[in-house]
Design a protein that fits this description.
Structural class: alpha+beta
CATH superfamily: RutC-like
Helix content: 10-25%
Number of strands: 6
Largest sheet: 6 strands, mixed
Radius of gyration: 14 Å
CATH topology: 60s Ribosomal Protein L30, Chain: A
Order of helices and strands: EEEHEHEE
Low-confidence stretches: none
Strand order of the largest sheet: 1-2-3-6-4-5
Shape: globular
Mean pLDDT: 96
Amino acid sequence: MSSITLISSVDNAPQAVGPYSIAAKIPGFIFLSGQIPLDPSTGAIVHGGIEAQAIQVMKNIDAVLKGCKSSKEKIFKTTIFLTDLKNFQIVNGLYADWLGGHKPARSTIQVAALPLGADVEIECIVAE
């Protein structure tokens, strides 16, 4: 168990909305819990529709990665959860812009609901 590091908070990222860590590190890997579009300063879902929510999720991922001393270039698997697959193209375009030429493996899933009424959530697996 000593080789597992649970990260409960980092600067500039929202707190977990439940009894879990925002990230877990084991030698060679970092597992990020799903990030929803919470404004770290208020703890509330950002307003502005799916675009604003997706951008905030990616900012939150960047903040968690920075707190884990990593970066998005080391992401090798993501899962995107959407409450409506009609938003796929919008989120896909923002995701592509965010990652540039980096193209990790990915799954995108439509779900019935997400925490706090979010429309998008993204989780990541990262090489340490």
